[in-house]
Amino acid sequence: MPSYYEILGVSSEATQDEIKKSFRNLALKYHPDKNRNSEESKQKFMSIVEAYEVLSDDQARKIYDNSTLQQRPGPTPRWTPPADFTTVYSYEEIKRRYRPSNIGGGMWDISDKASFGMWKATMVLFACLGAVVIYILLVD
């Protein structure tokens, strides 16, 4: 069974930011909403969430690191998803909450659904609106 660090593709010395970035990339790639017909993808997503839940919590990470260093024999405790799992780990929530930068929003935030062409069209529209305002001011 791969370690949580292997699942997220980070080293055991990874920072919280590296863990968060890796989680976001992998969760968006393997999310069940994106891969609807793949049971393997759903299981991979659940293991990514489990690894992130443990490694993102400093106390849980210390306990995990100590237990893997000691290589205790016997069954490992089972992870259970939080009660609001579908809300916290929905595809849209992962994109919103775990995005690389918390700066953004408003009309200048270009999401992955918007294109650069849409942004250019908006700028052309503002330029035309400005030209109409100037024309009205000059005519009157």
TrEMBL record:
The record's section on Pfam families has: DnaJ (PF00226)
* UniProt-listed CDD domains: DnaJ
Q: Which domain of life is it from?
A: Archaea
The answer, when asked if Transmembrane helix is one of the entry's keywords, is: yes
Q: Which GO terms describe its molecular function?
A: misfolded protein binding; protein-folding chaperone binding
Q: InterPro entries from the xrefs?
A: DnaJ_domain, DnaJ_domain_CS, Hsp70_co-chaperone_J-domain, J_dom_sf
Gene3D superfamilies documented for this protein = DnaJ domain
What GO biological process terms are annotated to this protein in UniProt?
Answer: ERAD pathway
Question: Where are its TM segments located?
Answer: 117-138
Which residues are in the J domain? Answer: 3-68
Alphabetically ordered keywords of this record = Chaperone, Membrane, Transmembrane, Transmembrane helix
What this protein is called in its record is Putative chaperone protein DnaJ
Q: Which organism is it from?
A: Nitrososphaera gargensis (strain Ga9.2)
Q: What is the lineage of its organism?
A: Archaea, Nitrososphaerota, Nitrososphaeria, Nitrososphaerales, Nitrososphaeraceae
Instruction: Please name the gene that encodes this protein.
Output: dnaJ1
